[in-house]
Amino acid sequence: QIRYSIPEELTRGAFVGNIAKDLGTDVAKLAAANLQVLSDSDSQYFSVNVNTGVIMVSERIDREQLCGQNPRCFLHLKLAIENPVEFYRIEVEILDINDNPPEFPSDEVSLRIYELASLGARFPIQPAQDPDVGTNTLQTYHLSANDNFNLNVKARTDGGKFPELVLERALDREFRAFHYLVLTAEDGGSPPQSSKIRITIQVLDANDNHPVFDRPSYGARLVENSPLGTLVVKLNATDVDEGPNGDIRYSLSSHNSAALRQIFAIDEQTGEIRVQGNLDFEEATVYEIEVEAKDMGSPTMEEHCSVVVEITDVNDNAPEVILTSFSSTLSEDALPGTVVAVIHVRDRDSGEQGKVLCHVSPDLPFQLRKDYEHQYSLLTSTRLDREHVAYYNVTVSASDLGHPPLSRHTILPITLIDVNDNAPQFEQASYEVLVAENNPVGSVLVTVSAADPDSEQNSRLSYSILRAGGTDPGLDPTRYLSIHPTNGQVTAKFPFDYEQTTYLQFHVEVSDGGSPALRNRTLVHVFVVDQNDNAPRVHFPRAGEDSATQFRISPSIVPPALITKVVAIDADSGRNAWLSYHLVEATDLGLFSVALRSGEVRIMRALQETDASAHELLVVVRDAGEPPLSTAITLVVLVEEKGPEALQGSEARAADGGGLPTITLYLIVSLVLISTV
């Protein structure tokens, strides 16, 4: 057996050994003996030059690939020679060279170590691998300089070396959260080869730090009545721990009152304190809020701080008007200066904003008198007249001195109590009434009306009729008339007769219900209007009932001789007394005529022998009333042979004598006078 030793990784054609020399055989003999080299492996790493007998490397040889970690590595060859057949065993030892550096499984490794880990704690690191052997393999580790860790290399019986980090100094995550180390693995080759791995150590947090506010107390200033949601202050607390240990939640401390909790709210995430209730300077000028910050570690750690909030006053309160004394009714005869109300004013604001001034309208008969600070008296300034103004709404205006000023208006309703200081007044100073005669009993002749500007009992009126002179000085109006005491309707007790009474006057007195009562009077003139209620009455010639008046005329009478004159009178007046005479029937209508207005009866033609000796005339006297009334009279004219002196009747004699009878003259004068009236 022949043994050679060569290093690995020789190039092709590299000399291994001279087999001819080592076997002591001639080279030519080896070539003639048909020399062959057989390998035990699948690869032919070697070849023999039969001409020289030199064994050479024919392929790359990697000891680590062939033998791994075995300390010794051999390749075995068989050398065959013919004539005679001989076999030689050749053993080639492959020697290791330092062609492989130590290599870690990765370029970087991460460790997570609790910051409260005990000193001396060990943290193994995956070892580096070096396929070389002997001194060329991994020999040692080196750790980069640091303050907390040392390196310990643990050797196993198989020669393996395992590095460990040993904690020599306590960790503080808040001081350094990450440690960056470099571990170097180095072999023993010449020159040595090495590799490095980066070690990142994350220090795991422990809840060993409580939250810390950036200041021990906070201050803020707000105006009162700040809108809801107004930011008061933003708190800032920090916790150097991480994760839940450094996650801070803010809250209002339980030391705060329930009322304060209703005014302020805090956002547990951001620490913003905002207004959620009404800020009223008049209720509190300063609020001190206790706030706590807690982390989410286990156990929880907390910190406290205080927030002082000063409230600035604004003019947000209108003055208040308080009636200390007030009478809503006042007699209208109250003297100027009479106290109506005592008023107290106040303003809950402070400073100038809390000072109050009061006033009333100068157009009212009232004025304010300042008694002392915050108190006023409302007085009457002039005489009052309920009949002019019965009710006042006195507006008391209270204004403060803020900017802008606020004011409050209080209305005081004042009702004036009536005093009986006004006498009743008739609508007319006198009344004139036209009453048709024959009026119905109880008919209303006139309604007198009076008014009293006073009120209630003082304005309750009562009417009565007083005696007064008239056409008849002794005439008593209460005999004919009556008046309703409350509505003033004057009614007739009896029908009026124009032919008896044409005019009546009387006084109506009205009195109120005051004490003492006040009175007034008015004069009423009653004119009776004539009605056509009297028929004409024949005054001449006179005739009894159911009888006719006879007249005698001569057959030789010359027309138009006056036979007689019918005279009638009518008790009515005016048109009702205008009379007209009509010849309605006659024995011979063409023989006689009757004058329409005078009633004269005349013969219209000369008598003839064929005319009757007696003529009957029906004369109707009619007035001009509506409807007209009339009276009839029958005249009988006898034709006789006697002289005119024999004719009966004053009218006939007057006709012969050429003059009118005295009675006829009187009747005519009376008719003219009545018509004129």
Automatic annotation (TrEMBL):
GO terms for cellular component: plasma membrane. Its main location: membrane. PANTHER family: CADHERIN-87A (PTHR24028), PROTOCADHERIN GAMMA SUBFAMILY C, 4 (PTHR24028:SF331). Residues 5-104, 105-213, 214-321, 322-426, 427-538, 545-663 form the Cadherin domain. One of its GO terms (biological process) is homophilic cell adhesion via plasma membrane adhesion molecules. One of its GO terms (molecular function) is calcium ion binding. It is a single-pass type I membrane protein. This is Protocadherin gamma-C3. Keywords: Calcium, Cell adhesion, Cell membrane, Glycoprotein, Membrane, Repeat, Signal, Transmembrane, Transmembrane helix. It is found in: Cell membrane. Signal peptide: none annotated. It comes from Myiagra hebetior.
